[in-house]
Amino acid sequence: MRDDPLLGLIIVFVPFSLISIGGGASIISSMETQVVTARGWLNAPEFLELFAISRAAPGPGVMLATLIGWKVAGWAGAIIASLALFVPSSLLCYGVFRWSNAHRQKRWHRAVREGLAPVGTGLIIAGVISIFQLAGGALSSVLIAFAAAAVLIFLPRIPTLVIIVFGGAVALAICKL
Amino acid sequence: MTADRQHQPLETASLASLFLVCLKIGLLSFGGGLSGWLYQEFVERHKWIDADDFASSLAISQMLPGANVINLVVCMGEQLRGPAGAIAGAFGFLVGPFFAVIGLSALIDRITDAGPLQATLAGVAAAATGLLIVICWHGLRRASRHLSGLAVVAVVAVTVGLLKWPLLAVVACVAPVSIALRWKRKDRSNAG
Questions:
Q1: ipTM exceeding 0.90?
Q2: Cβ–Cβ of A92/B66 closer than 8 Å?
Q3: Residue-range definition of the domain harbouring residue B79
């Protein structure tokens, strides 16, 4: 009794795509339930390791789905899982944004954009708070983050990647001391 | 009324440059902080999108299902180049990380002492968080032109970030108030 793994990936990830309100982080725990408990594709330590890798690697955190697909069914699994997670939500977002942008010249649209801007800023601050809490509030992480921000604000010509690499180097130096 | 920097004319983006910028961010954004990368490239460096549009697209992206940053790329791609822009941006954005996560996973399977690597990755993630703080800083400066804007930022940051109230409910309550405040202010400035 073995289900087709590719079909299984689609069945698991398409609904996640459409319920992941608030971003990828909101579905991690239910993803674990599905992948580890319900389907038994991975065990819990394997899932945690993939989660850590997807956070460290470049790109959005939900690349976790790509990794799960890869572990379950190789390259085809990775492609299918990625498409199943990204395409449905992207189509929905595209539709909503295009509809609202069609009214761009209208006065209400301007009020909506300007009214949403401080909401977006507040959400980013909330996100930064959550990230610091996830990192266990390690002082070195907080200091590196604020130092990186200060450099970007006062010396905007320095390439972003230099700052990212420097952050990694400082943390490695602290670890070696 | 003060004349704003952000009302400078914006640059136009070609499909190829949109794709390449997204590819670059996808490949280099170790440790996350992707909205911060997008802000640095789309708003600060290339001047394709103004800061208010960026922040409001970000709020829309967070309310809808899906990875926030991919939604954000879809929105900005559509605004710059229509459907082709949305596809070019999203594809460019995802193709690098697709291979990077698989490559990193294969690499870590071979390493026995992962301690220094994990410390480095934590530092990278911290610096990437710095990119997000830059957005907070610029957003706060723009919001601080009006007391009500600052209040909206504070309410959202505290309820979602500290009190962990559900994001969707908070936005559903705060966004209409914030929009109504803007609308009323426009009324007055039009009349006056």
A1: no
A2: yes
A3: 5-129
Rounded Cα distance, B148 and A73, in Å: 52
* DSSP H stretches of helix in chain A: 5-19, 28-32, 44-56, 64-101, 107-134, 139-154, 160-176
Q: Chain B: nearest CA to A25, how far in angstroms?
A: 8
Asked if residues B30 and B131 have their Cβ atoms less than 8 Å apart, the reply is no
Minimum Cα–Cα distance from B134: chain A residue: A149
Contact A172 B116 (CB under 8 A): yes
**How far from the centroid of its chain's Cα atoms is residue A34's Cα?**
19
B42 in the same domain as B14:
yes
The predicted-structure confidence for B128-164, as pLDDT tens digits, reads as follows 888 889 889 988 998 888 899 999 999 999 998 888 7
**Rounded Cα–Cα distance for residues B80 and B13 (Å):** 7
Total tally of structural domains belonging to chain B: 2
Task: Please check whether residue B183 touches A, CB under 8 A.
Answer: yes
Query: Which of B97, B129, B161 delimits the end of a domain?
Result: B129
A96 touches chain B (CB under 8 A): yes
Say yes or no for a CB contact (<8 Å) between B96 and A167: no
The separation between the first and the last C-alpha atoms of chain B, rounded to the nearest angstrom, is 12
